[in-house]
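Per your request, structure below.
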């Protein structure tokens, strides 16, 4: 009986720790439909509690974009890249470009040689900070779900994958906007599929 009681106590403690870790976070994706997001419905679908971006092949990048802007935040999500040779990313503090399918702003990169790196999409068009290959090799789970965290607080940005920090970056340019939208990317190129789930966010002061 005592062992059962101890087990129940340990279970309650574990549950409390999980809830504490997620305290202050709210879903950015409701798991049912694309409420709060906008993008091409032929490229983005919702099923089994996840957002799937897929295409037979595209000439331009396309994005599923939040309708709301965000400034200081911590965003957590799970991502699975079906073909490890393909490339994708999550835009943040970004905006759509007029008369274009592109977005401009920061991107938390996803894909071979880019996982966990910080890229500046359609603005400076370069990697602002590159993740170390040896860190990604030890951390990344190819073709499986990976926990990805984007944290932006003022000029300070950190990225992490599966609990390991890949980027710690401070923006040197004071003219760069510190607020914008999130965007999930279907990259130009060959046949493609990427899955996202458990997207949630915590607003930081």
């Amino acid at each position: 009986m005592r062992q059962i009681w101890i087990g129940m106590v340990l279970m309650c403690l574990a549950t409390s720790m999980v809830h504490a870790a997620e305290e202050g976070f709210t879903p950015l994706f409701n798991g049912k439909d694309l409420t709060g997001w906008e993008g091409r419905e032929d490229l983005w679908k919702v099923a089994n509690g996840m957002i799937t971006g897929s295409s037979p092949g595209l000439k331009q990048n396309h994005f599923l974009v939040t309708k709301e802007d965000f400034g200081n935040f911590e965003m957590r999500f799970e991502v699975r890249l079906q073909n490890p040779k393909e490339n994708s990313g999550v835009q943040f503090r970004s905006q759509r470009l007029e008369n274009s399918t592109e977005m401009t702003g920061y991107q938390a990169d996803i894909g071979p040689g880019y996982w966990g790196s910080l890229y500046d999409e359609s603005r400076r068009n370069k990697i602002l900070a590159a993740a170390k290959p040896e860190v990604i090799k030890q951390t990344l789970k190819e073709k499986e779900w990976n926990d990805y965290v984007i944290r932006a607080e003022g000029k300070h940005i950190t990225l992490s994958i599966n609990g390991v920090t890949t980027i710690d970056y401070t923006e040197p340019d004071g003219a760069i906007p510190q607020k914008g939208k999130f965007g999930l990317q279907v990259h130009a190129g060959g046949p493609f599929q990427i899955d996202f789930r458990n997207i949630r966010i915590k607003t930081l002061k």
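The longest helix spans residues 2-21.

Regards,
D.
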